[in-house]
Design brief:
277 residues
Length: 277
């Protein structure tokens, strides 16, 4: 265990992927960046004043790239997805396309594999018969076919998203939205198995670090410290959800725990990280 106490931490020997003050190895080259842009108003031309642009670092593999992946996801969410209204089922494919834009080489291919695994969870739960093997293959490998199938009331009922084939249209729509949200979470879950060193405990360890291991650096002004603590607290909501040993399905993960980081929690952690009087 290292005996070095890093800036922003109150003890030595801490091993965590996302630190309060990021570490930078000597002579480490600047990561390759990608530029992502979307139209502010889809009815107008792509002139500079009608573009919303974002520049983020690229990754070539998923292994141990949890910090970059999550920070890129947060920036895409805040800069593009929310302003564009890309938050529901009908914008899933554009969201996934934007994620894939900051990946190349093995990262991009592994991201596609994670999507196939996620589709496989739904298809396997449906329990097709042996004579449907061709359809099963199509649903697992073709995303648009999968989403079309997922939207069918028969599928939603079999997967327990609605109670009846004659459910109200509003209930069917809500069921489809829930199913797509779970599908996106499932993709995140399988990516997380590669992104994090110990994916089952990623959230637990980072939450413990946030509440107990952070100390305001002497040279950091209080405004920057408060901003960084809020940023770190918000980041916890995007981490891999905790799961039990032996769990292999995304549904087994405790997704609700990610929503349990409150404003009061962030304020308390921020206060506790200040120097003792």
């Amino acid at each position: 265990m290292s005996t070095v106490k890093h800036s922003g931490e109150n003890q030595s020997g801490i091993d965590i992927q996302i630190r309060f003050i990021p570490l930078k190895a000597e002579n480490e080259p600047e990561p390759k960046k990608c530029k992502i842009s979307v139209l502010v108003d889809d009815k107008l031309k792509g002139t500079p004043d009608n573009l919303r642009m974002l520049e983020i670092p690229m990754i070539t593999k998923l292994e141990r790239e949890g910090e970059t992946f999550v920070l890129n996801k947060i920036k895409l969410t805040n800069t593009i997805f929310h302003p564009k209204g890309w938050t529901k089922a009908d914008s899933l494919i554009p969201r996934l396309e934007k994620y894939s834009m900051f990946m190349e080489n093995r990262a991009k291919s592994d991201f596609m594999v994670c999507q196939r695994k996620a589709r496989g969870e739904f298809v396997d739960f449906f329990e097709f018969t042996a004579r449907d093997s061709a359809k099963v293959t199509t649903l697992k490998t073709q995303q648009e076919d999968f989403l079309t199938w997922l939207e069918e009331p028969k599928t939603l009922m079999k997967l327990n998203y609605i109670n009846s084939l004659t459910a109200d249209p509003e209930d069917i729509t809500a069921g489809f939205e829930s199913s797509v949200r779970d599908y996106e979470n499932s993709i995140t879950y399988f990516c997380g198995q590669k992104l994090w060193t110990d994916h089952r405990n990623t959230f637990r360890e980072h939450k413990k670090y946030f509440f107990n291991k952070i100390a305001k650096p002497f040279t950091m002004c209080i405004v920057d410290y408060n901003d960084r603590m809020r940023e770190y607290g918000d980041t916890l909501r995007f981490l891999q959800p905790p799961s039990r040993k032996g769990s292999k399905k995304s549904a087994d993960a405790d997704w609700a725990s990610l929503e349990m980081i409150t404003e009061e929690d962030i304020r308390t952690a921020t206060y506790d990280g200040l120097p003792k009087e």
